[in-house]
Amino acid sequence: MADNDKVVSPEEVQEEEIVKEEAAEKETAAEETQAKEAAEEAGDPAEESAGETQEPSEEPAGESEAEEKSEGFKGFFKKKGDKEKAALKEQVASLEDRVRRQMAEFDNFRKRTEKEKESMFSMGERSVIEKMLPIVDNFERGLAAVPAEEKESSFADGMDKIYRQLLKQLEDLGVKPIEAVGKEFDPAFHNAVMQVESEEYEEGTVVQEFQKGYMYKDSVLRHSMVTVAK
Predict the structure, then answer these.
(1) pTM of this prediction?
(2) Cys staple from 213: which of 33, 59, 162, 224, with CB 3.0 to 4.6 Å?
(3) Topology at the third CATH level for domain 177-230
């Protein structure tokens, strides 16, 4: 065995390993301390991001976007619904206005038709009455020609009753005789056929009636034919 070859005991080997481990630990701790100090000086983004992630957000980004889209869809459909409602209201108002116009036109047509019908009926009635007036005149002439001694006869009495019945029917239809004798001459109602001097009546007064005139409601059916004092 050489002189420089030393015999190492197990205890020495163990101590040497412990020293190495302690040195390695110190070296690691120093490196960690340096790294920490460097990170604090530089403001390590990893730590900042780590701090940020530690505080959970109140609402995840995905849910927020979904809610925004949902609100957008709701607003779109709401606007569309409002437009449809406005269009329906406008259409209803247009239809109501058209119905009111048609009802007014129909009411005017009904009134116009009734007026025309009444006018036609009145014209027809007037025409019939005008044809009946000569019959009334003949009754009056016939009764006036009956002798005084025969006025109480059944024939004269029958003629008088028929004459009065005819006048009653004409009166019910709105026919009335025009007053003439003793009234001031009025060309709207009287038709003067001659003038005579009169001591009984003043000038311009009707003194005699040749043919009786009649009114039909508010219009002259036939003018009275009269003699006027001058």
Answers:
(1) 0.50
(2) 224
(3) Nucleotide Exchange Factor Grpe; Chain A, domain 2 (2.30.22)
